[in-house]
Design brief:
Among the domains are: 51 residues, no CATH class; 122 residues, no CATH class. The protein is mainly beta and 355 residues long. The strands form six sheets. A five-stranded antiparallel β-sheet has the order 4-5-6-7-25, with no helix packed on it. The longest helix has 15 residues. A hairpin with a 2-residue loop joins strand 4 and strand 5.
Amino acid sequence: MQTSYDHLYEDLIGEILSRLPPKSLLRFRSVSKALYARISSPGFIRSHTLRSPKKFMITHRINFKDEADSKTMYTIHSERKLSSYAGITPVTYPYNTSSLIVGSCNGIICVNDRSLQRDDAIYLWNPTIKRKYKVRHLPSCRPCFTHGFGFDPDIQDYKIVRIAIPHTFVYTLKTATWRKIAPPTTRPCYVNQSKCIFNGALHWVVGGFRGYEYILRFDLSSEVFSTIELPEPSWKNKEVTIIKGCIAVLSTKDDGRWWIWARNNDTASWSLAFNLNATEHLTFGDLLYFSYGYPEKIMIFDPETEARSRLVHLTDSSRIAHMTTCIESIELLDIGTSRDDEEEEEEEESEIMQK
């Protein structure tokens, strides 16, 4: 017969486990069948994910000037250690150098692994526990404008949307199937590959006919597309992000300045949040980062604190290729395959860092 102390003990164990890093949880799964079942349960995985602190994954092109000797590595940083590599071990990036990061959600990164093959492969990848899941192939001869990736809170499942005309498809992880859905009502001429998730929906900057630009919105639960007007239609609108709990867009003129507009959630009106001076915009998530000068320098701007810092390169012969939000989670724990080749990778990484 269980007592209130037994329940208190169980709750305390759950609280402790949910605060542990993924590598510790993987070790504890081998302690007992009870711990294995508990850590592997969807409820615990979700609880642990919600508690995990936000981090950033940076991909680096090593020896980028020499294509024959070039390769890609990645590093994972906390927000406070973005300008330093002290205590951080670079790891070999497991995908093609031309691969495209579709999106990142709850520690899972969706990768469109472009190669010389006729069809691209899509993977869901958790770099923290080195697991990957290959998404079922969707044969189609129609040109694809873009993919999007996110989490549907209504059914507690991950979805991938493939936007093409006239057919658009949605993939759900639990069923491992693609379904055809209604495409956007307005046909886009192009879709900016950078996107963000806000209030359960994916957002892109999209170009229509005659130079008309707007934000395309896809609700991950209802699977319905809608549009949002941009603040300054005559400007070059590049990407969308989230700033202080609002959807925001990065725009530019021809004067070398970048303007960040935020949309009021209540009035649906746009207002100028910041303007920055930079020669070239790279990409951004919760932080903005720009390149400027020669040799290339990268500046990070935090919209929450308005603090600016410098992001340094991994080595003298490397360049930063991409940066994305990536928390450390155990999502995909028992799904897909493992990429646990750490000993071989660490030897290779040590050689690279010594060059």
